[in-house]
Write a structure and sequence with these properties.
heterodimer, A: 258 residues, alpha/beta, Rossmann fold, 2 domains, six-stranded mixed beta sheet, globular, B: 347 residues, mainly alpha, ABC transporter involved in vitamin B12 uptake, BtuC, two-stranded antiparallel sheet, two-stranded antiparallel ribbon, 15 helices, 2% strand, binds adenosine-5'-diphosphate, binds magnesium ion
């Protein structure tokens, strides 16, 4: 990828996070570039979701830096600020508001207005319908409350939401965990398209097949540390599995492509 | 395939996008009927009509236009307070201080009025004091992490004491004629205070249904964590909600004083707090947040006032009033639960 030499779209250095006395992240580093899909893999509790939440500002890091397009982010900031800095995200656990319909959920945090104050529902619904159509998502009426959708449908609506925001950096936390085979393939296609559109896509996943199929780089988290980043084309599955389980010791300097 | 985002980033239609994207509204008549009938407002409107028909059968006075106007007039207080209180509940909060704020604002405005302060300033003074109390509630809840029910209940007790202290327990009487004219007069046969309630109701309807703020309120009440994660600025919205709840309580207190010509220390209080929350819940606002409408709150307010009136006209002893209201409240919340179960299936 030619983007390698450019400034990383997203950079983490020495990120640490404690929840009370529990150390969730010990030392996480990451470089993600525009036009690349960067997978983050690791066992349950390795700190993948916490890393995502630190990037978006839901949690603040106790130590370390988060840099977006080379600019260092304040450690205390709200989720609303992340949008402004060009980051959109699909969370694993807190994605959508059940009592609002699909169109409202897709625009939440960035609702279109007309005459300065009035909500532009027509535009909101049209935009939602356009994005869903482009992503070939079939969830029926955009006025359907999200509470009525299945887990898989909610997941694609959440992804469509992030796509609609059209930000240069997209974070996806286990986007395929709730999905069947066909839906997973569909999400893979969407990720490929995002990459082709020049986005920096960071995708947490459990599914190594998925990571090997769609990612350019993979970073392994183990017990709150990033133990290695590899170029997918050059790494074997066994090596990644070894890093995840600890059978292969991690790199001393993390986040550098070996 | 690869044009997905660039196409949308570039504004304006592109050739492939000629084919219109439909929002797929349910347009058939059957669909419309199904939607309307599934709303709590519809159930309530039917209850209102049934109670009305029963009352009309029991008493010839009921359908008298003066009586019908009186029902509307006495529902104004519940409704105006209910707009702010209901919006707050939709947003996931609760305000038990409302009844004491009602009294506080009425006393403040009336004290200023009898000291010859011009009436618009006196009223604004009463409402500003209410707004301050709402802001304090917000601070205690947000920054001291006291649960809303406790914070506002504590505020209720403190304000009740203040209300009694500053007046020495005496009502403020003899409000200027101009204020009484506003409270008691009517335009083309419609009482002024009903017109005020309609304006307040429309304003709140627009706020809830047609602004970003309204969507953010529903989002916070429906799923706070998801709303915040998706960029809703919760603290700002909460502040506005507690202030609005307090201001409508204050406004209701001022309207009541203008209507009766004095500010009474015993008006408002815990019974007002409870009856307003009751009207709001009967009107289909969910105590769990997210769901509810201004139309529903209006019907809830009218229903309470209607029941009151119908029982009096039917010579049914007043004790039955609270029995009926309590039963309706429990029934309404049970229906709300069924509705939520239907809307929000487990994944
Ligand atoms: N809000 C929280 N409070 C306390 N501990 C947390 C919180 N969130 C995550 N943790 C802990 O941090 C560690 C990493 O969790 P998480 O990032 O969710 O892991 P992953 O997504 O990789 O499965 C776990 O030990 C988890 O229990
Ligand atoms: Mg996780």
């Amino acid at each position: 990828m030619a983007a390698d030499r450019a400034t990383p779209a997203l950079q983490l250095r020495g990120v640490k996070k404690f929840f009370g006395s529990v150390s969730a992240l010990e030392d996480v580093a990451l470089d993600a570039y525009a036009g690349e899909v960067h997978a983050i893999v690791g066992d349950n509790g390795a700190g993948k979701s916490t890393t995502i939440k630190i990037i978006t500002g839901i949690h603040s890091a106790d130590e370390g830096d988060v840099m977006v397009q080379g600019e260092r982010m304040a450690s205390r900031r709200s989720a609303a600020d992340a949008h402004e800095h060009g980051v959109s995200v699909v969370y694993q656990d807190l994605a959508l508001v059940e009592c609002l319909d699909i169109a409202h959920n897709m625009a939440l945090g960035n609702l279109p207005r007309k005459y300065g104050v009035i909500l532009d529902r027509r535009k909101m619904e049209r935009e939602a319908a356009v994005v869903l159509k482009e992503l070939k998502v079939r969830v029926g009426n955009v006025r359907t409350p999200v509470g009525l959708l299945s887990g898989g449908q909610r997941q694609v609506v959440a992804i469509a939401r992030a796509v609609r925001m059209d930000k240069p950096i997209i974070l996806l936390d286990e986007p395929t965990a709730a999905l069947g085979v066909q839906e997973t393939a569909h999400v893979g296609e969407i990720i490929d398209e995002l990459k082709a559109a020049g986005k920096a896509v960071i995708c947490v996943t459990h599914d190594l097949d998925f990571a090997f199929k769609h990612a350019d780089k993979v970073t392994v988290l183990r017990l709150g540390r990033s133990v290695g980043t590899r170029t997918v084309a050059d790494v074997s599955r066994d090596e990644v599995v070894g890093l995840i389980t600890g059978a292969i010791p991690g790199d001393t300097r993390t986040a550098e492509v070996a | 395939m690869t044009t997905l985002l660039s196409r949308r980033t570039r504004r304006g239609p592109s050739p492939e996008q000629k084919e219109p994207v439909t929002v797929e509204e349910g347009t058939s008549a059957a669909e419309w009927v199904r939607r309307v009938m599934s709303r709590q407002e519809t159930t309530l409107a039917i209850v209102v009509v049934v109670v009305g028909v029963l009352a009309a059968m029991k008493s010839d006075l009921f359908l008298d236009s003066d009586n019908l106007l009186e029902i509307l007039r006495s529902s104004v207080i519940y409704f105006v307070m209910g707009c702010g209180a209901g919006l707050l509940i939709i947003g996931g909060g609760l305000d038990f201080a409302a009844g004491a704020i009602f009294t506080l604002s009425a006393l403040m405005a009336s004290k200023m009025l009898v000291s010859s302060v011009p009436w618009p300033i006196a009223i604004l003074g009463g409402l500003a004091l209410a707004a301050l109390v709402g802001a304090i509630n917000h601070v205690v809840i947000t920054y001291w992490h006291v649960p809303p029910i406790i914070a506002t209940l504590g505020m209720f007790y403190m304000l009740t004491g203040v209300d009694n202290l500053v007046t020495g327990g005496n009502d403020v009487i003899g409000l200027p004629q101009v204020v009484q004219d506003i409270g008691q007069g009517s335009i083309l046969g419609v009482p002024n205070i009903v017109l005020i309630a309609i304006v307040v109701g429309l304003w709140f309807w627009v706020l809830l249904e047609r602004t970003r703020f309204g969507v953010n309120v529903r989002a916070l009440g429906g799923n706070r964590a998801a709303a915040v994660a998706n960029g809703v600025r919760a603290t700002r919205v909460d502040l506005a909600l507690y202030v609005l709840s307090a201001v409508t309580a204050g406004l209701a207190g001022v309207i009541y004083s203008a209507r009766v010509g004095s500010a009474q220390v015993t008006a408002g209080g815990s019974s007002t707090t409870l009856i307003v929350v009751t009207a709001v819940l009967i009107g289909g606002v969910s105590l769990l947040g997210g769901l509810g409408s201004i139309q529903g709150i209006a019907i809830g307010a009218v229903l309470l006032s209607l029941i009151d009136n119908a029982l009096v006209l039917s010579n049914i002893p007043p004790q039955y009033n609270t029995i009926v209201v309590g039963a309706i409240l429990v029934g309404a919340v049970a229906i709300d639960h069924l509705r939520r179960e239907r809307i929000f299936r487990k994944r």
